[in-house]
Amino acid sequence: MLSLNNLGIICISQALQHSPKLLAIRQWLSKASSRATLCNNSITFSSKGTRRHTGFRLLNESTVKHVSSLQTTFCTASVKLHCWNCSQSIEQTPAFFCLSCNFVQPPDERASYFLIMECDQTFALDTQRLQKTYLKLQRSLHPDNFSQKTMKEQEYSEYQSALVNKAYRTLLKPLSRGLYMLELNGMGIEEGTDAGADPLFLMELMEINQALDEARSKEESAKIGASMKEKLKDLTEQIDASLHKGELQDAKALLAQMKYFANIEEKVKEKLSELM
């Protein structure tokens, strides 16, 4: 694992009773997830956002949940990284492989999901390009490719794989992407019903849920589903405009609405399965 002495300031607030390997994975993925209350809190949401790159692979769900459970707060200064194998300077960010010896590297803590997935830091990103990047990284970083390599390379490929999968899943859907962009700017949306929400909006949600519960045919359920798609499409456009202008509070309010409608859309899918 990359020596922590090479990093700026790292504060780890979780217990050390876990196995060394699981703790290492947790540390890497928790930091990279960055809940980025990073030192740099000045994020610009524009279509000309900073370009960024990635890592990859899906570990089993329990491992990912364990990894995500470790919350780490840290700040990184300008740090010069070196290959753990040949000690050559690592200039690119993030670095999946050393350009000198081609050994897989540990995840780069300075990289956001946008940088990892080689995307512009914008809400309206190209999901087809995102998928192509994901598949490319998967082919090169999948742990199966390192089964005959050293134990350290196998572990680093696992870390990179888990991180790339999480980055891909987060950026793929508008809701999780928008929430992540808010997190990068130190904002979040609380779980549960928002007590401060517009009563008319809450009434609308209640009526939609009631109509879905009472739906007895695929046609009725599909009609509600189509309505949700339209609402989500409209919200996506509004959120993109708000983030582009830097109106984060407006974007936060719209994303809160999107959470509710996305939840109903999932219920519609479940309802349609039941009626098949």
TrEMBL record:
Residues 112-184 form the J domain. The lineage of its organism: Eukaryota, Metazoa, Chordata, Craniata, Vertebrata. The gene is hscb. Interacts with ISCU and HSPA9 to form an iron-sulfur transfer complex. Interacts with SDHAF1 (via the first LYR motif); the interaction recruits the iron-sulfur transfer complex composed of HSC20, HSPA9 and ISCU and mediates the incorporation of iron-sulfur clusters into SDHB which also interacts with HSC20. Interacts with the cytoplasmic form of ISCU and with CIA complex member CIAO1 (via LYR motif). Homodimer. Interacts with ISCU (cytoplasmic form); this interaction stabilizes the (Fe-S) clusters on ISCU. Interacts with the CIA complex member CIAO1 (via LYR motif). Belongs to the HscB family. Acts as a co-chaperone in iron-sulfur cluster assembly in the cytoplasm. Also mediates complex formation between components of the cytosolic iron-sulfur biogenesis pathway and the CIA targeting complex composed of CIAO1, DIPK1B/FAM69B and MMS19 by binding directly to the scaffold protein ISCU and to CIAO1. This facilitates iron-sulfur cluster insertion into a number of cytoplasmic and nuclear proteins including POLD1, ELP3, DPYD and PPAT. Acts as a co-chaperone in iron-sulfur cluster assembly in mitochondria. Required for incorporation of iron-sulfur clusters into SDHB, the iron-sulfur protein subunit of succinate dehydrogenase that is involved in complex II of the mitochondrial electron transport chain. Recruited to SDHB by interaction with SDHAF1 which first binds SDHB and then recruits the iron-sulfur transfer complex formed by HSC20, HSPA9 and ISCU through direct binding to HSC20. Plays an essential role in hematopoiesis. This is Iron-sulfur cluster co-chaperone protein HscB. SUPFAM superfamilies: Chaperone J-domain (SSF46565), HSC20 (HSCB), C-terminal oligomerisation domain (SSF47144). One of its GO terms (biological process) is [2Fe-2S] cluster assembly. It is found in: Cytoplasm; Mitochondrion. GO terms for molecular function: ATPase activator activity; metal ion binding; protein-folding chaperone binding. Pathway: Cofactor biosynthesis; iron-sulfur cluster biosynthesis. Signal peptide: none annotated. GO terms for cellular component: mitochondrion. NCBIfam families: hscB (TIGR00714). Keywords: Chaperone, Cytoplasm, Metal-binding, Mitochondrion.
